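[step 3/7] inverse_fold.run input=structure_tokens len=280
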């Protein structure tokens, strides 16, 4: 695959007028570049909205997002899919917010929305995949489809909490998304997100996998980079940490060993968690 590169005047992560620097890595035919200021990493060529829609419609309907389809099946059977860490984080957020109006960007088939509504949240989702939105509608979730060409158009000071689980690595105009999220949050509102850690062991071994490579994942973040772009976007009380607590999905020595190593920081955590607040 050959990419056509265009020199950008502004970093699409932090907005600074700096020329991106190649980091000397090519993943799935895409060269990776870094911003000299915020140190975020990504590709320089933007997938078209049609390409993005096709990628995610296929992933949700027949492709590699089989876990999402399994979650949908379980919910339709009246069961709650296991996502204990996200559920714990939401309960933590609830102790710090009085309001209960939530926006999720990239909510997929709606599994987190089902859980949020069960806890009394007024929940709305936006997703670029029509297939995902149709799944969510089937679960009774308020979900809207939008084009990846721009962040969704949102009302000002509307939401108490904005959530993006494993989404920021997919969007091209990161700065535009962060600005829109900041604007749509109420004063004192919070932003909760997760994203793969660029220093995760697999990435350092050049094992990105199909679902972790461009054009699916087009951004890669370190703890420092994520802290930088959140702060540059005006958020305060920015806390980015490496997830250490993992729950076993099956009883195996290999999985148990990996969980133990991550817990003790003997192995780099594969996931970053970010929590930030809009000033009052």
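[step 3/7] decode complete -> sequence:
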């Amino acid at each position: 695959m050959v990419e056509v590169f265009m020199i950008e005047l502004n970093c699409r992560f932090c907005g600074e007028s700096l020329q991106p620097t190649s980091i000397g890595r090519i993943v799935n035919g895409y060269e990776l570049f870094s911003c000299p200021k915020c140190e975020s990493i990504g590709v320089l060529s933007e997938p078209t909205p049609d390409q993005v829609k096709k990628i995610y419609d296929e992933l949700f309907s027949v492709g590699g997002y089989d876990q999402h389809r399994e979650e949908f099946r379980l919910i339709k059977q009246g069961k709650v899919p296991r996502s204990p860490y996200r559920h714990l984080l939401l309960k933590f957020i609830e102790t710090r917010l009085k309001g209960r109006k939530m926006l999720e960007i990239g909510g997929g088939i709606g599994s987190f929305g089902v859980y949020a509504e069960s806890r009394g949240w007024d929940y709305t989702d936006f997703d670029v995949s029509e297939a995902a939105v149709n799944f969510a509608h089937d679960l009774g979730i308020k979900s809207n489809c939008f084009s990846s060409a721009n962040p969704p158009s949102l009302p000002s000071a509307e939401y108490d909490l904005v959530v993006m689980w494993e989404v920021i690595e997919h969007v091209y105009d990161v700065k535009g998304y962060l600005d829109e999220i900041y604007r749509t949050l109420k004063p004192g509102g919070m932003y909760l997100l997760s994203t793969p850690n660029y220093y995760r062991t697999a990435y350092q071994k050049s094992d990105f996998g199909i679902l972790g490579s461009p054009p699916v994942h087009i951004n890669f973040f370190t703890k420092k980079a994520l802290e930088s772009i959140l702060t540059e976007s005006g958020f305060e009380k920015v806390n980015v940490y490496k997830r250490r607590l993992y729950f076993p999905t099956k009883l195996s020595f290999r999985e148990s060993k990996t969980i133990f190593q991550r817990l003790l920081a003997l192995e780099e955590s594969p996931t970053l968690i970010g929590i930030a607040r809009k000033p009052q």
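[step 4/7] annotate
Residues 107 and 238 are 23 Å apart (CA to CA).
Confidence is low (pLDDT under 50) at residues 1-8.
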